[in-house]
Amino acid sequence: MKRRASALAFVGLLAIVGACRTSLAAPVVIVDSRHTLAFAEAACALYPDPTAVAVCHSVDDPRKLGRDLESKVAAQFAVTAQCKGVDIALLFDPMFDGDFNRVALDLMRRDYWSLHLDYAPVGQQYNWMLFAEPSVSTEDKFIASIKPAERRTAAGHGTVAQIAQQVCGAVNGRGGIIH
Questions:
Q1: What is the pLDDT of residue 72?
Q2: Vertex 99, ends 96 and 100: CA angle to 5°?
Q3: What's the Rg (C-alpha) of the chain?
Q4: In order along the chain (179 residues), what is the average pLDDT of each group of 10 residues?
Q5: How many CB atoms lie within 10 A of CB 169?
Q6: pLDDT, position 90
Q7: What CA–CA distance (Å, rounded) separates 94 from 110?
Q8: In terms of DSSP bridges, do strands 126-133 and 153-158 run parallel, antiparallel, or are they unpaired?
Q9: What distance, in Å, lies between the first and last C-alpha atoms of the chain?
């Protein structure tokens, strides 16, 4: 009888731990399309390299190259084991897409990480920067791009696969601690 009571107590403890674990919100990464698309447009205007010029002229709008990078990074999150449990969404750019992504705005009601991707028309490696952001109200029509300098950040450089691994390591706390 004593053993059964201990076993039941242990099962109850596991249920409490499981409930606590599932109540913790998954990390959220919002890809700031405004940054990525603007960076792609600027990169195409500034790169004098003939290969870059050819890549940039392969599309009617260089911002599409930035969107392609965002899509590749988001898809890589789905197949990277280290990203398990991380929610990712593209914010979209109202100047390109007509409005913000409603799913991203809903996710931004929680604390989240803003991911800035720097598109480059040459090579297969890109710079990225991650900013810890407090939750925002979706009623606000303006989402501030400038935050206080003391916010937590992380940055890196790599291929699309490396970006997914590095970012997920940072937001899941599997890398170093960001203060």
A1: 98
A2: 105
A3: 20
A4: 41 34 72 97 94 96 98 96 95 96 94 96 95 71 47 89 95 67
A5: 17
A6: 98
A7: 22
A8: antiparallel
A9: 50
Residues paired with residue 177 on neighbouring β-strands, in sequence order: none
Look up the pTM and report it. 0.78
Assign 3-class secondary structure to the chain: CHHHHHHHHHHHHHHHHHHHHHHCCCCEEEECHHHHHHHHHHHHHHCCCHHHHHHHCCCCCCHHHHHHHHHHHHHHHHHCHHHCCCEEEECCCHHHHCCCCHHHHHHCCCCEEEEEEECCCCCCCEEEEEEEECCCCCCCCCCCCCCCCCCCEEEEEECHHHHHHHHHHHHCCCCCCCC
In terms of C-beta density within 10 A (0-12 exposed, 13-18 middle, 19 or more buried), how is residue 136 classed? middle
Structure tokens belonging to residue 106 = 């809903």
- Residue 40 tokens read as 């792609």
Q: Please state the domain extents for the chain.
A: 28-171
**33: number of Cβ within 10 Å:** 26
Structure tokens at 145: 């791009």
Which pLDDT score, from 0 to 100, does residue 128 have? 97
Q: In what order do the strands lie in the sheet with 112-118?
A: 87-90, 28-31, 112-118, 126-133, 153-158
